[in-house]
Specification:
The chain is mainly α. The protein is 69% helix and 0% strand. The protein has one domain (47-292). Helix 8 (177-201) packs parallel to helix 12 (261-285).
Amino acid sequence: MASTDLEPLSESVPATRARPHKVIGPRSLSSRTLLRNLRALASYRDLIGTLSLHRIKVRYKQSLLGPAWAIAQPVALMVIYTVIFSRIAKMPSEGVPYALFAYAALLPWTYFASAVTTSTGGIVSNVELIRKVYFPREILPLSYIITALFDFLVASIVGGSLMLYYGVALTPRALYAIPLIIIATVFATAMALFLSAAQVWFRDFGVGLPLLLQAWMFATPVVYPLAAVPSSLRSIYDLNPMVGVVENFRRVLVQGSSIDAPSLLLSGAVSAVLLPVAYAWFKHAEATMADVI
């Protein structure tokens, strides 16, 4: 009888459901796997937007100047470089006021440098989040890149003001600035994926990155025109994807000149090759990040 009384009771209690879990293992490097990872990443687009907006808010929270800090760095560098390279070193600026010449190059360069610098520490600075919750880890460096893009858009306001001040008008060629920033974003993403994953195992990357970017800037035509580079070095020099981005951004925006097609095509090709390679390596390394970090 006791057994009979217990049977209805046991039927009325729902079975405990197992909590969903995901096992992260090393990913293969096949194109099919990469496409599957991209589809999974697309399903997290709301999280990408939320994290990016959070980073923008936190970055300028309790700041008197707020987003104006996005302008401070390129403007300060423009003033310093104008004094040193225009007044003292007498660097040619190809018929453009040097302040505008430098600022037009600093806009894409500062965007790239900021995106790479901040995203490199994106994994190691979110240890607790990575250990407790699953989501595609590449979302973290991507959110820093979107934040840097926001800063670029804010800093572009000063660029437009400088063009008005010096009486430089935009031409239809300025539309090339859009694909140029896309190329810079692709290259920055490739660097961010590689460096943020490498930073998990070797913190040296984060420590040495500012020095690397400082040297990298002088290997890019930011404070000097591309024409100043000896022709004997151009074949190696142009392998730097930021050469085509920075030079052409300045040409189409403030000089109204046609693009330098060879450097632009090379920048696009190198960036397009590096991004899938960096992404494949990042996803392969993702399996042990939580254990190592």
